[in-house]
Fold this sequence. Notes:
Elements: E1 13-17, H1 22-33, E2 37-41, E3 54-58, H2 73-77, E4 81-85, H3 90-98, E5 103-106, H4 114-159, H5 163-177, H6 181-190, H7 210-219
Helix pairs in contact: 4-5, 4-6, 5-6
Amino acid sequence: MKSSITQNFRGLRASVIHPDDTNRQTLCAVLGKLGLVVNAVEAVNFGDFHNCDVVFVDADEGIEALPQTEQCVSDLLGLPCIALIGNEAPSRLARVVRRGCASHILKPVRNTGVYTALLLAMNDHTKRQKVAREIEVLQQRLAGRRVITQAIVGILNRHNVDADTAYAWLRAEAMSRRLTIDIVAQERVANPGFGMAHSSGKRPDLDQPKDNHKNRRSTQ
C-alpha cells in the first residue's frame, strides 16, 4: 500500500532561524505565499519550537546552537529541519548531516526551490516517524517474547513439562482471565509460585513444585 504524499502546507507554523537579511525576507515571503505562518528569529530559542511544525535554520551560523547527539534534530525536537546553506565547505555540510536535516535550500534564497525543500522535508519526517513507531512496536513484541520465554523456562524447571504444554498453560490462563499472554508471563516471571486461575483435569496445579507433582502422580 502506497503512503500518501503531503503537498499542501497551508496553516503550518514555520520557525525561521536566520539573520535579518534578503535571504530571510525572501524565504518568509515565499512561505507566506504557500500559506505557512512564519516566526522569524535571529537566534535559536527552544521555546519557539513548541509552537511550530517545521524549522528553517541557517547552516552557516545558527545550526551550531542545535544539539549534536546520536539522535538527529528531527528526532530530538520532533520537527523536520531544513538547512539554509551558503557555504558548501565539507566541514559546514558535515554539521548539517550530523544534525539530521531533512532537506536544504541553497543561498541566496530564491522563489524557486523552497516548496521542493519543504515537501521533501515534511514527507521525510512523516516517514521517519512511521519507521520509529514500527521499531518501537517490534521492540515491545521482542521484549514480550523474552518474557514469555522466561516464563516457559520457569514452568519447565518447576513442573517438569514440555515447552508446548507450558505455553498452553500460559495461553489458557490468559484466556481465562482475559489478559494478554505477556501480562500473565510477567506475573509468572515475577512470582514463579503464582497459581494459575485456569484449571483443567489434564494438567497439574502449577502451585506445586515438580517434585511434589511427581510424588502425587506416583501415589495415584
